[in-house]
Amino acid sequence: MFSWFLVTPLKLMLLGLIAILGFTIVRYSWVAFAGETERGRFLRALLTTIAAVVLVIVSNHLLLFWAAWVSVSLCLHRLILFYPERPRAQLAAHKKFLLARFSELLLGIAFLLLFSQFNTAIISELVAKVPAAGSGLSLSIAAVLLALVAMIKCAQLPMHGWLIQVVEAPTPVSALLHAGIVNLGGILLLLFAPVLAASPLACWLLVILAGISTTIAGLVSTTRISIKVKLAWSTSSQMGLMLVEIALGLYEMALLHLFAHSFYKSYSFLNSGNTVNHYLAAKLAGAPKPRVWHWSLALALSLAMLAVAQWQFAVMNSFAATVLVWFALAALIVPSVTRWDIASLPRIGITLAVAAGLLTLYSFAKHHLAVLMGLDTPLNPLADCLVALLFFSLFALSIALQYWPHVRWVKSLFIWLNAGAYLDEWATRLTLKLWPSTSLIELQQAQLQINTESKS
C-alpha cells in the first residue's frame, strides 16, 4: 500500500512550491472574503483543491494518480462556480467540465495502455522499464494521449477559452489556477518524461501545436487592455512554451520555467488591483517609449553577454533556448538604454550587472535541476530550429504591432489577434451545439428578461 505513494527530490520541490502558493492564496482569501457570508464554503473548496493537487504529486499508482487528477478538476469546478449567477462563469465552467472529462478519458486510456504493456501500475517501476522497452505502438499511442491531456490541462489553443473566461471567478481562484493547476500538464509530462521521449510523434505534436499556441497567445496578450484577461492569455502562451521545452528534452529549463511562472502569476493576480496605479505612475513619470534602435542596442548587449557566458561556462545546449534567453535579456536591458541623460551610464551598468547576475543564477539553477531530473534526452536539431524560428516570429511580429500599427497587413493582424483569432467563438458554438448547457441557457434568458424589464 505504501508503494502507492512516493516522494522524490523533484516531488519534494513541487510540494514546497504548492505549500508556499497555498499558504499565500489562503491567507489572501481569508482577508479578501472578510465579511462574506460564504467565506467558509470558499475556503473549504480552496483547501480541498490544494489537497487534491498534493495527492497528484505524491501518487505513485496509476489508479490513485487518475483519481486525484479527476478530484482536482471537480474541486476546481466548485471554485469557478462560486458566483453561479454570472453567465461567463457558467460558460467557462461548462466548457472546462467537458474538456476535463474528455482529458480524463484520454488519461485513463493512456494508463491502461501503459499497464498492459509493462504489467505494473506502480509509476516508478513503469517509468524505469520504458528505456528498455523501445518504442512500440502501445507506448507511442500512450505518449500521444499524454501529450493531448497535457495540452488540454495547459489550455492550449483552441481549447483555451475557459481559461480566459474564468477570470469571472474570484481573484484567489485565478491565482490558484494560473499559478498552480494549469502547471499540472507540464508536471504530468515531467513525471512521465521517458514515455514521452520514446515517441517522436508525441514530441513533434507538442512542438508544433504548443509552439503555434505559444506564438498566437503571446501576440493576442499584447492586444488586451483588461489586466486579468491579459494575464490569462499570457498563461496560455507560457504553458505552451513549457510544453515545447519538455518536448525538446529541456526538462531542467521547463522545471525552472514552471517555478518562475508560478511565483510570477500568483503575485500578478493577487496584486492586480494595484496594476492600474503602477501604470498611471509610469505615465506620470513620462517614461519614453523605446525605439527600434534602442532594441537593436539592447539585443547587441545581451548577445555579447550570452557569448561570454557560453565561452566561459558553455551554459547553452539548444539554439531555441539561446534565442529565448537572448530576447529575455534584451527586454530587461532596453529600458535602461531608452533614456539618455547624465545617469545613463550608471543605469546601464547596474542593469548589465543585474542581467549578468540573473544569467549566472539561471546557469546555476539549470545545472542543478538537470542533476535533479536525472534524464538525458538527445536534442532534435530540426525541432530545435523550428522552435527558434517561432521565437523570432513572435518577437518580430510584436515589434511590428508596436511600431508599425498603420501598415495594412499589421492592421489586419491586429484585428485578427484582437478577436482572439476567432478560435474561442468556434469552440464555444461547437461545444454548446454538441452538449448544450440547460442552466446556462436559463441563466442567459433570465438575464435577458431582466435587461428588457430595466429598459422598459
Automatic annotation (TrEMBL):
TM regions (residue ranges): 12-30, 42-58, 105-124, 130-152, 173-193, 199-220, 241-264, 292-311, 318-338, 344-364, 385-404
Alphabetized InterPro entries for the sequence: ND/Mrp_TM (IPR001750), NU5C-like (IPR003945), Transporter_DabB (IPR046396)
One Pfam family it belongs to: Proton_antipo_M
Keywords, in A-Z order: Cell membrane, Membrane, Transmembrane, Transmembrane helix, Transport
Main location as per UniProt: membrane
Domain NADH:quinone oxidoreductase/Mrp antiporter transmembrane: 59-276
Membrane protein topology class: Multi-pass membrane protein
Protein's cellular compartments: Cell membrane; Endomembrane system; Membrane
Protein origin, superkingdom: Bacteria
Purpose of the protein: Part of an energy-coupled inorganic carbon pump.
Record-stated family: Belongs to the inorganic carbon transporter (TC 9.A.2) DabB family.
Assembly mode: Forms a complex with DabA.
PANTHER family named among the record's database cross-references: INORGANIC CARBON TRANSPORTER SUBUNIT DABB-RELATED (PTHR42829:SF1), NADH-UBIQUINONE OXIDOREDUCTASE CHAIN 5 (PTHR42829)
HAMAP family with a match to the protein in the record: DabB
The protein's name in its UniProt record: Probable inorganic carbon transporter subunit DabB
Native source species: Shewanella electrica
